[in-house]
Structure formats: C-alpha cells, structure tokens
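Action item from last week, closing it out:
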Amino acid sequence: MTIDSRKAPVELISLFIILSPLEHVARVEQIGYVFLIGVLLLLFSKKLTLKRGSKLILVLFTFHLLACCVWSPASNAAASGFTKLVVYLFLILAVQFDYTEEDYSRLKKAFILQGWIMVAICLLFGNFQNNRLWISSSSSSADPNYLSTWFIFPLVYACDEIVNTNENKIWKLIVAIEMIAIYACVFLTASRSGFVTNILVVALYAIYSFRETIRKNPIKALLIIAVVAIACITVTNLIPDYLLQRLTSTHSMGSRGRVWRELLSAMNSNWFQSIIGFGDGATVFYNTQGAIYGMGGLVAHNTFMDVMFNNGLIGIGYFLTIIIKEILNRLREQKIEIVIGAVGMCMAIFTLSALTTRPVSFMLLLLLIDINVENSQIIG
C-alpha cells in the first residue's frame, strides 16, 4: 500500500486536531507531536526546503525560544524547552505543505468535531471548584480560562458551516446544537476573557456575514439585532448570581496589572536583557504578586507580556510580525473566519500565559498554511 504524500499531512493534522482535547484526560499531547513530527519528516522524502516570509520568521522565533532556555533562571527550563521544540517543530513542518481548498475544508470539519469532543470531556470529566468548571482529570490546561480558549475556533467554523456551506439541514442543526453546548460550557467556566471572546467571534462573524443585509435593508437588520439583544438579556437573566458576579468582576485584572508593571520596571532597568530576553519562565522571578497567595512570583497572565519579558524585544518582534502579517494576508484572501478566530484568540491570550497551548499553536497553523497557492517561493 502506498501513502499519498500530498494527502497524508492534512489527514494526520486533521486527526490530531480532532483528538487533541484528549490531553485533558491523559498527558498525550507531546507523544502526538513527536509522532507527527516523525511522519512529516518521512513525507519529506526529497530535500527539505523552507519557505520564505512568515514561515522563515517562525523558524527564527523557534531558535530564539530555545536559546532563551539556555540562560533561563528556571529549574525546569530543559523540560520547557522540549515542549517548545516539539510544538514549534511540528508547526514548521506542517506549514511547509500547500493545502487545497478541499484540504482546508477538512481542517474546518476537524475543528467542529474537536468542539464536540471538548463538550463531551466537559460533561464526562468536569467538576466544579469555587463554582467554576474545571476538568478534574486534566493533566494540562485545566484552568477554566485556558479551557475556554479551546472553543474559539470550533465556534467560528460552526458559524461558517451554517452560513456558507451547502450541507444538509440536519447537519447544520447538529452544528447549531454544538454552539449552544459550547456556550453552556463557556458560561460554566466563569471565565471573563472566555465569555467575551467567544461571544465576540460569533458577533463579528454574524456582522460580516449579514453586511449586505445591514446595508440594503437596515430595518430588517435592526429587527435581527433587537431579537438577538432580547435573547442575550433573557440568557443573562438565567445566569446564576455567582457566575454573573464573577463575569462582571474586575478584581483579578488589578493583580495582573501590578505584575505587568513590575515586569516592565525590570525591563526598564536592564536594556540588554530586555532585547534578548530574561530567559524562559523568568517572569516568576521578577514580580512579587504571588506573595499575596503564599507563593513566589506569578506568570504574566498575558502571552504577549510573557514573550516580551522572557524572550525579549527580539522574541516579541518575531511573534507579532507573524500574527499581524498573516492576519493581513488572510484579510486579502477573504479568509475572514481565520481572521476572526485569530483576533478572538489574541484577545483571550492577552489575559493568559498560553504560548505553547494547543489553541495558540492551532491559531498559528491556520494563519501560516498556504491555501491553494501555486509556485510558492522557497529557499534551499
């Protein structure tokens, strides 16, 4: 039996996207990455080449992440470096292939199925701590705030499936039910960032999809907005008081702000380390906010701040260049669903330290893959 080297990557990556939520049940994500890296390397039977542009920046960013582990003050820098290596090596290899529109449709379906698996895991393994939904058996990414980021792209692609595909009505009904189930899980996490971003991505997609209706028939558009507003008010009234209080509280943002100020002060005192980075995981050594909770310093609770502090202006330059450049490219390509998902994810990780989590790596994958591109420029 021969393996189709063109179709195999998207099939493997789709399967990985679908099954990746299983990391909440058992620590399997690194095994999955290592397996995929090995298979993708085998599929490059000819000389491996690297594409220019953001994909080359991704390689440079990966090298810099690993270099920062060398001068890291953290005792777990080697383990952290290995995690970053497998996550970003997978991304480097996965984005070297060209993807057809059919391949991209398969990836979209994979995210929809991923959403269902996440809902099932929440139902089967979820429990409540401090009135918030956690995954009791999770070995990684168990925090409710991280949990809510898993639903951003499944929600966006569910919207796209309902609005822009010719699938049968039963399938679209199933997808709509999935969206309701996802929102129930997001509410139960009581994550402010998760609540805002998951509402926002659907709202942005709806506005974009019905822009012609808004322009040509504003009265109809206003009626739709009124119906949605009434529905939102009704749902809000059904939210338990403890959840509503949590969702409207700004208490933890104050502690995050103090962490950010202390980290910026440390950067201001050492310009050289500010450029190259203080080292992997260094944020906890340069702030005192954890003492409030009887522990050492805290992570930045902001992925962009984490990258800027740990990996310096060099690292944040690479990271932001990839995100901004590829969002603009997706806008030109009219892949608005990727843009909306990426914007939502960036908003979510503004209050989370999530550089190597699966939702962030999937965002980078979707931003960086070439969809239906011919004669891609390569170096080698």
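Closing note: The CA atoms of residues 84 and 356 lie 6 Å apart.
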